[in-house]
Amino acid sequence: MTAVALGVPRLRSVLPSGEGRPDVPELVDRYGRVARDLRISLTEKCSLRCTYCMPAEGLPAIPRDQVLSTREVARLVGIAGTLLGVQEVRFTGGEPLVRADIVEIVRLSALAAPGIRLSLTSNGIGLDRKAAPLAAAGLDRVNVSLDTLDREHFRSLTRRDRLPAVLAGIAAAHAAGLAPLKINAVLMRETLEDAPDLLAWAIRTGARLRFIEQMPLDADEAWQRASMVDAAELLSVLGRRFLLEPIGREDPSAPAEEWLVDGGPATVGIIASVTRSFCGDCDRTRITAEGGVRSCLFGDDETDLRGLLRDGSSDEEIADRWRLAMWGKKAGHGIDDESFVRPVRSMGAIGG
Ligand code: SAM
Ligand code: SF4
User: Fold this and answer.
1) Could you tell me where the beta strands, DSSP code E, fall in 93-169?
2) CA angle 284–287–293, rounded 5-degree value
3) In the structure, what pLDDT confidence band is assigned to residue 284 with cuts at 50, 70 and 90?
4) Of 51, 134, 200, 350, which residue is 20 to 30 A from 333 by alpha carbon distance?
């Protein structure tokens, strides 16, 4: 199969049976988990081409009429916040800032679900101009992805020479008060030795850095368990420069395990998605840019909500469909098992 075919393929839309589901409003599953954290992908388009995520030519374009509109996104946020007990919404992609209506999406979402926490995961490009309007529209926080401060390493990993634009975006996010500002860095062999500099910089600028083990979600299918950089290897590289003491997770559903750096107060997080999976405590529900519910990043069934958004269905009917989709959530991803099978969609096509 080619990389392009792996981009945004058509998926089975299978609705699980609701047998055994308790009659509660929340998004519960068979394993006792409750989803309170919603990730909504706004687009498959992106201003970078990170090798661990996108193919060099980008993902195949989704026809515009199949992508959720500004109002459809805000309506789903409203349903999640008011009917389904969702407490936090994160906009992602692709790159959410390439949507011209991103500020309006945030503004309408904040109105649709008063009190819900709204955040964004972004590569930072364009944030220099958008951070202040986003904060004014109701955005609480932003996570910016940045893997290295070495300009040449950045260029070869993202296939674009845009490090200065990302740093300008981060500075603007700090200035706009989008706090705490978190930096996500995917662990790659070619940037592993840059990790101590990245941590020193994050501490200096007041950002909270989290390293993420690379998952097999690259459109190019180059991921290999044997050559992947794991948390243990990172700790040994950081340990050459910093004194690190494990302090555990902020709360049980937080994906990052935290380490105190040089006695604190600074910390560094590691999201060991592969070697120390946290599926048992997962509290996520995901919506793709085309309006499909995914109960898990890994798992190829999706439940369409866009059809209901467009056929006159009520909010309660949409909420019911969403509840059923989450009831079918599987126990875990099993990446570290020999029997693991990659999902058909890549990270940029699901929404990370
Ligand atoms: N474009 C935005 C960005 O880069 O932050 C949002 C979308 S991106 C898919 C969301 C997050 O997924 C980023 O932090 C990115 O580093 C991470 N990511 C992408 N591919 C990954 C992979 N194969 N394994 C682990 N994390 C990955
Ligand atoms: Fe774009 Fe984010 Fe994927 Fe990088 S990780 S290619 S910035 S969507």
Assistant:
1) 117-122, 141-145
2) 85
3) very high
4) 51
328-342 pLDDT, tens digit each? 888 877 666 666 666
For residue 14, count other CB atoms closer than 10 A to its CB: 11
Q: How far apart are CA 344 and CA 272, in angstroms?
A: 22
- Is-contact 125 94, C-beta < 8 A? no
Among residues 208, 133, 156, 138, the alpha carbon closest in space to that of 48 is found at: 156
Residue 272 CB less than 6 A away from ligand 1 = no
Q: How far apart are CA 28 and CA 76, in angstroms?
A: 18
Classify domain 4-10+24-350 by CATH architecture. Answer: Alpha-Beta Barrel (3.20)
Nearest to 53 by CA among 63, 45, 42: 45
Residue found under tokens 């590691």: 270
Q: How far is the CA of 313 from the centre of ligand 1 (A)?
A: 33
Residue from 90, 95, 125, 154 whose mutation best tests the ligand 2 pocket (most atoms within 8 A of CB): 95
Residue 110 in 3-state DSSP? helix
Q: Residue 47 CA: which ligand 2 atom is closest?
A: 1
Token pair, residue 272, equals 């060991």
Ligand 1, atom 26: nearest CA belongs to which residue? 214
